[in-house]
Known about the structure:
By secondary structure, this protein is α/β, with parallel strands linked by helices. The chain has helices spanning 11-14, 31-40, 56-71, 91-98, 114-123, 138-151, 165-174, 193-196, 207-223, 241-245, 339-356, 361-367, 375-390; strands at 2-7, 16-17, 20-21, 44-50, 80-82, 104-107, 127-131, 155-158, 180-190, 227-237, 252-261, 267-278, 286-293, 297-301, 308-311, 315-318, 394-395. The two termini are 32 Å apart.
Amino acid sequence: xxxxxxxxxxxxxxxxxxxxxxxxxxxxxxxxxxxxxxxxxxxxxxxxxxxxxxxxxxxxxxxxxxxxxxxxxxxxxxxxxxxxxxxxxxxxxxxxxxxxxxxxxxxxxxxxxxxxxxxxxxxxxxxxxxxxxxxxxxxxxxxxxxxxxxxxxxxxxxxxxxxxxxxxxxxxxxxxxxxxxxxxxxxxxxxxxxxxxxxxxxxxxxxxxxxxxxxxxxxxxxxxxxxxxxxxxxxxxxxxxxxxxxxxxxxxxxxxxxxxxxxxxxxxxxxxxxxxxxxxxxxxxxxxxxxxxxxxxxxxxxxxxxxxxxxxxxxxxxxxxxxxxxxxxxxxxxxxxxxxxxxxxxxxxxxxxxxxxxxxxxxxxxxxxxxxxxxxxxxxxxxxxxxxxxxxxxxxxxxxxxx
Length: 403
Ligand SMILES: NC(=O)c1ccc[n+]([C@@H]2O[C@H](COP(=O)([O-])OP(=O)(O)OC[C@H]3O[C@@H](n4cnc5c(N)ncnc54)[C@H](O)[C@@H]3O)[C@@H](O)[C@H]2O)c1
């Protein structure tokens, strides 16, 4: 059994966004609920949640007591809150001081805070899981990579699409198609989500870091042994988010990445588009991609699983319980097979295993999405942001493989 500290108490952790219960597909959140269930299963010991404002925990407890308990009456939703009173940007430090070394720390705060919090957690001797995008710059990525290595700790990136059985199969297929030729990916969220992200959208991060991170990670993972990115150019669309938030914010960002196949020298191209101005639709998030290799191609629409549900309250929806299955079975949570849940469970299990068999770290660093094998993801996302600022193609130098 391992203790867990979660830093960040927003939508992905609790299901509560700035205005109250999130109107997205995650009104029950993902992280806290998954951890409560893992504690019931005997995998997790203490659960600590660290935010900034002690008052926020009243709302969170009420949300868990009313909404989570109405679905899963027997679920234990207790946790230790930090800060206990007042407001502090550094309440997670008090929590870090209480955790035994080798515990789990999960960082689900705005993108520009990941580096500092992950670094302090590693320095305190914890295994760390960080929300995508892991960090914003290559320099930060390499600094954490050095630290994790020096300390012998696991630093994993939370990219749950890797645990989607269909995406994972696509990656295995792609590796049989020969050289990489072309990929198009698209991912969006509705413009209502801009209210949830009003605190940071266009200030400390952008929609490309937030959503393109997923498919760029998937491509880097799939082609890591045979292709490398050589340059990135980004373009943007504007006009909706800036009016809504009253500051400069891109609506949609497209990164075009030039790749080179390592053995043949043949060129490949990937085009990744992410937007947060989508209209309401039958899904919260559109997410799909097309990949073409020299000997095969694959098309996936992850948002539409051929599973439609219609109710008087919500109308028609394309459901995806493969991500998070919230519908209870016999009054209990029954979503242990969801890829949102499995991503968290894999990190918890792997961290726990390292306490008994530390020599497994090298294997985990190969198999899992870790700081060791995701450097190209950070390089592409950072180059995309720089390309928008500088209005030019950014050439990626060095690095012939994934890390
Ligand atoms: N919402 C999603 O669907 C989703 C999915 C996957 C990953 N993520 C990632 O998770 C992270 C958080 O996203 P979110 O949607 O939950 O955001 P959010 O804006 O709803 O919540 C962010 C939380 O971080 C807290 N925070 C900010 N600075 C802090 C600090 N110094 N110490 C402690 N807490 C601090 C805020 O108080 C807030 O509770 C982001 O990196 C995002 O990319 C979100």
